[in-house]
């Protein structure tokens, strides 16, 4: 699913180089990520790398194009009232987005069941759970399959795309780090006959450091909501958090606190070297949460980003285009931490 899409990614970058144009890396990576997610979750081809405005790109963009009032309502209405809001016609996402994904999944289910098509992907796992014999535990419905595919798309689409974009944005401004990472990529790939395999990527320790430092400086979800499971007295204060209270964990604040990460505004992958990562205080680096509700897509998302970076950095060098506004600003209304506007980079083949 991953490496099969890298050829299209590389060709898209080469087309910009051929035309002597900078590329909006934010859009390029989003198109790559869309193709991966659609293939893995739905078993379909979206062809977003070849065609700029596919249906999946259109509706994928709308998922995260939230209005301010919708964000406020989602974060302020008590959970007990959310069901009522739904029956009154309010939904978390635009209705046409829900209708598109519902129809896409239903059509896929019907096609696979009619043709007995078997494919090693996320959809196949869900269909096998649905078609268990009567009485089997964990049997799921079509509605649950639709929900799972939608969540898979949301979780893997934007978070991976924004992380990869932030990596390339930082590397374009830190050429020494980019060169060091490229050297590792080429050295490891040479041992694997040039193939981008899972084993090859797992050997790239500096790549892991670069990804983690990006997640530290730019966590995909800056705040994580959690519910207090028992009364908790905050040490040194008169504050007691009552059981059932929703609290917001300030991930971004923790990960950019100089008490835990010296000079936190500096992009420094050495924070996650074998020597230094053991010194990071517990629960101060939690870009995917922690515990039983930790993001289940952690490995998938990181692997997706790594494949894109390996494919690009072994072939191209990136520098910041004058079209990119610096210092960067972040989107004001978004579930995900992302750059406001386009991210223009210059690419040269090497």
TrEMBL record:
Q: Where is the protein found, in the record's own terms?
A: Endoplasmic reticulum membrane; Microsome membrane
Task: Kindly state which keywords UniProt assigns to this record, in alphabetical order.
Answer: Endoplasmic reticulum, Heme, Iron, Membrane, Metal-binding, Microsome, Monooxygenase, Oxidoreductase
Q: Which GO terms describe its cellular component?
A: endoplasmic reticulum membrane
Binding locations of heme: 295
The record gives the membrane topology as:
Peripheral membrane protein
Q: Which InterPro entries does the record cross-reference, listed alphabetically?
A: Cyt_P450, Cyt_P450_CS, Cyt_P450_E_grp-I, Cyt_P450_sf, Insect_CytP450_Detox, Rhodanese-like_dom
Q: What is a single Pfam family found in this protein's UniProt entry?
A: p450
Q: Which GO terms describe its molecular function?
A: heme binding; iron ion binding; monooxygenase activity; oxidoreductase activity, acting on paired donors, with incorporation or reduction of molecular oxygen
Rhodanese domain boundaries: 10-78
Q: Specify the signal sequence span.
A: none
The name on file for this protein is Probable cytochrome P450 6a13
Q: Which organism is it from?
A: Sitophilus oryzae
């Amino acid at each position: 699913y991953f490496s099969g899409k890298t050829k299209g990614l590389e060709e898209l970058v080469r087309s910009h180089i051929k035309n002597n144009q900078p590329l909006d890396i934010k859009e390029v990576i989003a198109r790559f990520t869309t193709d991966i997610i659609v293939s893995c979750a739905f078993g379909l081809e979206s062809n977003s790398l070849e065609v700029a405005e596919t249906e999946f790109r259109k509706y994928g963009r709308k998922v995260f194009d939230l209005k301010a009032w919708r964000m406020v309502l989602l974060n302020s209405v008590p959970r007990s009232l959310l069901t009522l809001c739904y029956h009154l016609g309010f939904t978390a996402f635009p209705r046409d987005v829900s209708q598109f994904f519902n129809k896409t999944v239903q059509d896929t289910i019907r096609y696979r069941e009619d043709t007995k098509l078997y494919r090693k992907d996320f959809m196949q796992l869900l269909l096998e759970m649905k078609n268990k014999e009567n009485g089997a535990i964990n049997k799921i419905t079509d509605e649950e399959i639709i929900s799972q595919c939608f969540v898979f798309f949301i979780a893997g689409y934007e978070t991976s795309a924004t992380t990869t974009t932030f990596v390339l944005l930082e590397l374009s401004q830190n050429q020494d780090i980019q060169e060091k990472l490229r050297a590792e990529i080429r050295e490891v790939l040479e041992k694997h006959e040039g193939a981008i395999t899972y084993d090859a990527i797992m050997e790239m320790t500096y790549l892991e450091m670069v990804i983690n430092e990006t997640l530290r400086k730019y966590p995909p979800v800056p705040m994580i909501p959690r519910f207090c499971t028992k009364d908790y007295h905050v040490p040194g204060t008169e504050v007691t958090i009552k059981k059932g209270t929703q609290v917001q964990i300030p991930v971004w604040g923790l990960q950019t606190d100089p008490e835990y990460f010296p000079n936190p505004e500096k992009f420094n992958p050495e924070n996650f070297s074998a020597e230094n990562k053991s010194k990071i205080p517990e629960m101060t680096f939690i870009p995917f949460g922690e515990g039983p509700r930790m993001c289940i897509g952690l490995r998938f998302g990181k692997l997706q980003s790594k494949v894109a970076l390996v494919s690009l950095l072994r072939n191209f060098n990136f520098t910041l285009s004058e079209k990119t506004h610096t210092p960067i600003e972040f989107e004001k209304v978004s579930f995900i931490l992302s750059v406001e506007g386009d991210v223009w980079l210059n690419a040269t083949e090497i």
